[in-house]
Amino acid sequence: MKSRKYIMLIDDNKIDLFVSQQTIHNLGSDIFVSMFSSSVSALRYFENLEGKANSGHDKLPDLVFLDINMPELSGFQLLEKFDTMDLFKKNNIEIVILSSSRNDSDIEKSKKSGLCSSYITKPLTKDKLEKLLFEATQLQKELKK
């Protein structure tokens, strides 16, 4: 059982990764953050965990921040891959798009994804993160009723 919150950042921009990581760490030391600057590397990470059945579930993030515009696989392509994995079907991994795009079609596309819970524009700020975590906590309370 995990005692710390685990947040994963997937973004090809290393400056954005650093800024987001610092924002998360400023909320508290009880949050573990991992970062992937390659969407393919992130996919391999989850494929490896899925191959381990239940043994790797302590390594699953509680929350994933996913950029849209990345080389190799876009964030939307990565969501499509995740959607085919049992790991995402059986576990409550929240995925939030964190993108510089304010394009309405990107926002609508994220809403249509069954895995994506929110869409946030960069940069990740303390206020945006606190609001997101508060909403996630409220939802968990509702689901337990």
Automatic annotation (TrEMBL):
Residue list for modification 4-aspartylphosphate: D67
Domain Response regulatory: 6-137
SUPFAM superfamilies: CheY-like
Sorted UniProt keywords: Phosphoprotein
The keyword Phosphoprotein belongs to this UniProt entry's keyword annotation: yes
InterPro entries in alphabetical order: CheY-like_superfamily (IPR011006), Sig_transdc_resp-reg_receiver (IPR001789), TCS_response_regulator (IPR052893)
Annotated TM spans: none
PROSITE patterns to which the protein is assigned, alphabetical: RESPONSE_REGULATORY
Protein's GO biological process: phosphorelay signal transduction system
Full protein name: Response regulator
Record organism: Pukyongia salina
